[in-house]
Design a protein that fits this description.
Number of helices: 22
Order of helices and strands: HHHHHHHHHHHHHHHHHHHHEEEEHH
Strand order of the largest sheet: 1-2-3-4
Distance between the termini: 41 Å
Helix content: 55-70%
Shape: elongated
Radius of gyration: 28 Å
Length: 665
Amino acid sequence: MEPVRTFRTTLVWPVFLPGLLLIAAILGWATLAPASAETLLGSAQRTIGQQFGWFYILAVAVFLISLLGIAASRYGDIKLGPDDAQPAFSLPSWLAMLFAAGMGIGLMYFGVGEPLQHYLTPPLAAANPQAAAQQAMNLTFHHWGLHAWAIYGVVGLVLAYFGFRYQLPLSLRAGLYPILGERIHGPWGHAVDVFALVSTVFGIATTLGYGVMQLAAGLQQVAGIDTSASGFKLGLIAVVMGLAGLSAATGLDKGVRRLSELNLGLALALLLFVLLAGPTVYLLLAFSDNLGGYLSGMVAMTFRTFSYGTPAQQDWLGGWTLLYWAWWVSWSPFVGLFIARISRGRTIREFIVGVLLAPTLFNLLWMTVFGNSAIWLDLHVAGGALGATAANVDSLLFRFFDYLPLSQLTSGVAILLIAVFFITSADSGAMVLDSIASVGAAHSPLWQRLFWAVLLGVTAAALLSAGGLKALQAMTLLSALPFTAIMLLLCYSLWRGLQSDQCHQAQQPAPATQFWSGQHWQQRLRQLVQRPSAANVQHFIDTEVQPALATVAAELRQNGVATDVKRSEDGAVTLRIDQPEQRDFVYSVQCHGKPLPAFLPASRGDADMQYLAQTGFADGREGYDIRYLRQREIIADVLRQYERYLSLQLQQRGQLLSRAPGHQA
């Protein structure tokens, strides 16, 4: 008889159903009553800009200051995972995925359009075209610089830290563990993930909308295809989302990583071409000026609300800076979850520096090369003709290429790059949405990722039909507001979690427990200079460690402490003391092999590996080799660690980590 096939899913229904219903209600409204939706969304966008603009401005400032403070503090040394965790991806692959996930389509869409529009209509008075150009680049740098990546970095760091260090689910609710405790598994945690799900769907849909509009404009200009009809744009969404589904089927390591590396390679090639074909020396000089102006004016731009400005300046703030901050916030669950999943094993300082600096520098270089080139060409070559078309941002990049050599070829490369960015965003977006809806489940069925890819395409298509990019932008601003408040709570939670972690790291055993007095030094010396085989180490664990742990367990049971000693299939021996409502005490020893350093001489057999009888603990601390200890000394070491464990139970600052799930040891 054939086994009965069951419907397999990892979706958490209290997150999935409310989120899906809320998204469906908004899309139904936008589709069935597009005029009403456009009017109300526009009104809501203006109200949020006027009443809550200050909140967005101050919140983003808090995000950046928090990350810089953590990176400069002692907390920066903490690893995202156990102390012996190693990064899963090489540094170039990691940086490529950061870049592709964060801003790919946006760079293509706004690289020429934003600097040129700020240059033509500067929000602050400009004495001459040169001053207007400098102001335009400073504002563009502000929108695409450290602040954007600080928003991403906060969510990514919180998720990676609590997910890999505290062994909590890789979901937004885990970031509120220091505030909510076990209630993150109840309605409050579900509500946080629902907000994240809705915000992420509309944030990604906005980006996909930009990509569709620009792809259509590029195909019309390069291939002469009439792409003005709505049906063509909807068909384009369907084709690209189908390709994204194929990429999603290959998984994170193959699909997203390879597409990200392709993105970075194409983007670098296009960047170098524009740099060399354009006014090269001017662009290099401008990059230095732009960087200096951005850094020197960062404080003023960070906190600027135009409270002393004109209504036109306040409208500009709502239509540019606030919209950008909301866009980045709405993307932060997506990008944050994505970069958290690829960042296990890196230190917090490495994470912050990598996330803030590497993509930011690339963004700023990109904006200089494309933005300053466009302004220079409009002044010296086009005679204002390029600026006259700046309002049509969809096709502006391709009109810009018309003033450079090989315009057809570069436009074709740009179309390919936009399409790959589109696929990457949809692919990784579907993966992250599935992670949110399944509360960080590690292995979800393929159909779930495909479902989210389809939903992203439907959302982008519905909102484009309802009111184009205006509707997409308004939904971004609306959905990001509650999540900004959640992000501020995440910052506070992270600070409390780091304090608890530091308490665990700093706690030292009592001096009286340092038992070794130099006895058996010849045996210890022999073990130091000889390289044992895996069999030798396992024999030591079986004959010395296991009896010592069994002796301790028997004595503990006689004193009323529930404990046991277990041997796993891989030969590891573990003593565990159950502690209700606390992380259990665990003292584990296993045979651990690691490659010898390359500079050591090679030898026969398995001697190119170093084998250790390594301890393991429930709080993720890095273990150490105890192969040189005898049974009585092993017993003393167990008591040494148990005394440390009991001391931590009395430390208020250490309670968060003490009550979190234990690492497997």
